[in-house]
Design brief:
150 residues; mainly beta; OB fold (Dihydrolipoamide Acetyltransferase, E2P); 2 domains; 6-stranded mixed β-sheet; 4-stranded antiparallel β-sheet; 10 strands; 0% helix; binds zinc ion
């Protein structure tokens, strides 16, 4: 047999999203699972379950739409005190206008806003945040600056 030894190789662990239904974890670079209106072409994230918020078209007009995880910083804030135990402080929350339309609120990869500026170009990246009992890798999305203030 040519190539790797199938007897000893182990398959890469399966990846699962920290939050079901928001991201396509098979895509790299990351893709957000949004919705696009067939009538007015507006895009939404998180995906809409009812009619279009812009033109009022019925639910049947909405289609699943992959949205690129790239955009521009509109606003950001670093959180230093947080009552929950699900995330370590400090962390930075940002509002990002995606290149594909919607404004989303997301976490930045860097814990503080030291090097951030409004209008910075940002892109999504996967982070590993543990494993399930079945050994699947749990991944989540964070944004990082790819291009400073243009
Ligand atoms: Zn619409």
């Amino acid at each position: 047999m040519i190539g790797r030894d199938a007897g000893t190789s182990t398959p890469a662990p399966k990846r699962v999203a920290a939050q079901e239904g928001l991201f396509d974890v098979a895509c790299d670079p990351p893709v957000l699972l949004g919705t696009r209106c067939g009538a007015c072409d507006a895009a939404f994230f998180p995906p809409l379950g009812v009619g279009c918020e812009i033109c009022g078209a019925a639910e049947e007009s909405l289609r699943s739409a992959p949205l690129r995880a790239t955009g521009r910083l509109q606003a950001f804030a670093t959180v230093f005190r947080h009552p929950g135990t699900d995330i370590e402080t400090p962390f930075t929350v940002a509002e990002i206008e995606l290149d594909d339309g919607p404004v989303v609120r997301a976490l930045m990869l860097a814990p503080t806003d030291d090097d951030l500026a409004v209008n910075d170009g940002v892109a999504g990246a996967w982070i590993s945040c543990g494993a399930t009992e079945k050994g699947e890798e749990i991944i989540d999305l964070r944004f990082a600056v790819k291009e400073n203030r243009s």
